[in-house]
# Entry
Amino acid sequence: MSSSYKKPGFDAKYFEQLVNSLPALESKTIAITGTTSGMGFIAAETCARLGAKVILLNRPSKRSDNSFDRLKKNVSNAQFHKVNCDLQSFDSVRGSITAINELCPDGLNVLCNNAGIMAFRDEPTIDGYDVQMQTNHLSHFLLTKLLLPKIEQAAEKHGEARVVNHSSVARHQQKKLKGEYLEKRGGSLGGDGASMFFSGARWVRYSQTKLANATFTACLHEKFQKSNPKLKAMVAHPGLAESDLQSSTVKDGGMGSFFTRYLMKLGQSEKDGCLGLLRCIADPKINSGVIVGPGLRGLKGKAKAFSLEKYYDNDYTKALLWTKSCEAISDEFNI
Ligand SMILES: NC(=O)c1ccc[n+]([C@@H]2O[C@H](COP(=O)([O-])OP(=O)(O)OC[C@H]3O[C@@H](n4cnc5c(N)ncnc54)[C@H](OP(=O)(O)O)[C@@H]3O)[C@@H](O)[C@H]2O)c1
# Structure
């Protein structure tokens, strides 16, 4: 993947300070989706540096192989394990579970649902869902359901365990989650329109997915509080961060290269973009039921914790998300 939109080449301003404040993660097992580049890569590398066993959940590719080699080179003596998990396929997610379970004999301390794609074409996955919604939310919903026994096991042993989701300022764009985007309607959800400043159907679909990530967190937080408060759910947003996300969107036709080059000057390094994710994964001061990022709408800066927002943390939206997501995975998810 070209990294031409990393042109601003920002320095990380706050990253080292945050990492130095985090506790050692020895004896913790952390699974992260989408670690071939961007914030998933930084999160995997940092968790390993802090001593965690890190399970890398990626679809099989050269990028996956190369990033695995880079991680092993960057952190000597680290415990990295890769498991194939293509979020565009429910069968692939289901097929990854045995291997993940075998890697977590003492439970899974953190499941970090990070992977994502942005403003891609209106195309169905093999399961018939919107490619963005299945990658960014529905497969993470399934993964969380299937790994919950291991997450509960870690919570029992260590006093807590976490599910971390990754949203975006794009969650604000729509404000109202709509059921149709979670239904089997991939390829008929508005077409391939995209114009400058994030309008058009591609961006509506992306915004719906990032609203789904935040709503899923609100649902999990509510259910965990009632059933087992040792389980925690939090969501990060990175502001605007250099990563491969913009390059893949430009390649797919979702943004123009000129606009993207201009836009990225407003952002921050991928390391600083990872602050919220790392606080959610490892910071003991971060509690369940928060969104962590550079302000609620900020594009850069230190990551702080805020209450979940009422436009998705409400009974109607949570019930809609849960019902539609269970329908999509053809299963119940009882907590
Ligand atoms: N960068 C930003 O400014 C920004 C802003 C707001 C939110 N975010 C969110 O941050 C998260 C991480 O993105 P990033 O910016 O770090 O972008 P990135 O560098 O493009 O990383 C995205 C990761 O997701 C993986 N992925 C995509 N499709 C997948 C699939 N079907 N199965 C498994 N993995 C898949 C990619 O792997 P492959 O190599 O297989 O493609 C890659 O490892 C996303 O959820 C994104 O929405 C980013």
About this structure: The chain has one domain: 4-328.
